[in-house]
């Protein structure tokens, strides 16, 4: 369940985001446009519905993805506690993403609240999941290192540079982490025969 849901998170978000971006009136650039600009009814009248629906359906897939992380539970109590905390906050993060789609950039404060909640929760969830899995014998350590590096880079860039490009970097490197975790989970669920 988690593998398919994780794959759908990556595919759905990319499909809806890039389709919406293709409909955005030019000029459009990740350097000058926030992701949420894609969901703005006033700024992207032809593509806003796609981005907003994409946030909702991606959030639904994220629910299943985070629930499915129970497959990593083992006998270590501390790992289960950290991973469970990551799952719970991950569900909150998924809900926040859905609310970004419900409250588009045009809505002002509600959108800013849910957007801030999503990004804050996303940072915490990635760190909790990686920390809980780094010593798991079936976890690929390179994925954890990637997750730590891009999360730290996102935080540093957000506080030093800021701007739309950092947001794009944060979202798509997080999608990359989810995709790598899916690959790792497939190897755990369906190990290659040697």
The string of secondary-structure elements, in order, is HHHHHH
Principal-axes shape call: globular
Please, how many domains? 1
Helix content: over 70%
Distance between the termini: 25 Å
Could you provide a short overview of the structure?
This protein is mostly helical. The chain is 72% helix and 0% strand. The chain contains 6 helices and no strands.
Name a few traits of the molecule.
single chain; 194 residues
Notes on the protein architecture:
This protein is an all-alpha fold and 194 residues long. The chain has one domain. Helices cover 72% and strands 0% of the residues. It contains 6 helices and no strands. The protein is globular and about 50 Å long. The mean pLDDT is 94.
Please describe the topology of this protein.
Elements: H1 2-23, H2 48-67, H3 77-102, H4 109-133, H5 141-160, H6 164-189
Helix pairs in contact: 1-2, 1-6, 2-3, 3-4, 4-5, 5-6
């Amino acid at each position: 369940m988690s593998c398919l849901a994780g794959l759908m998170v990556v595919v759905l978000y990319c499909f809806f985001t890039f389709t919406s971006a293709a409909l955005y009136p030019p000029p459009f650039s990740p350097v000058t446009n926030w992701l949420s600009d894609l969901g703005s009814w006033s700024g992207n009248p032809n593509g806003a519905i796609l981005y907003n629906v994409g946030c909702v359906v991606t959030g639904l897939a994220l629910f299943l993805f985070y629930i499915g992380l129970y497959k990593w539970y083992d006998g270590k109590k501390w790992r289960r506690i950290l991973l469970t905390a990551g799952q719970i906050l991950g569900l909150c993060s998924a809900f926040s993403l859905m609310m970004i789609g419900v409250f588009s950039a045009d809505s002002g404060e509600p959108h800013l609240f849910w957007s801030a909640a999503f990004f804050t929760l996303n940072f915490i969830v990635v760190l909790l999941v990686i920390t809980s899995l780094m010593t798991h014998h079936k976890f690929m350590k390179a994925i954890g290192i990637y997750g730590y590096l891009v999360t730290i880079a996102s935080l540093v860039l957000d506080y030093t540079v800021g701007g739309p490009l950092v947001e794009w970097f944060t979202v798509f490197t997080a999608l990359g982490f989810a995709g790598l975790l899916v690959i790792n989970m497939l190897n755990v669920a369906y190990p290659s025969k040697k």
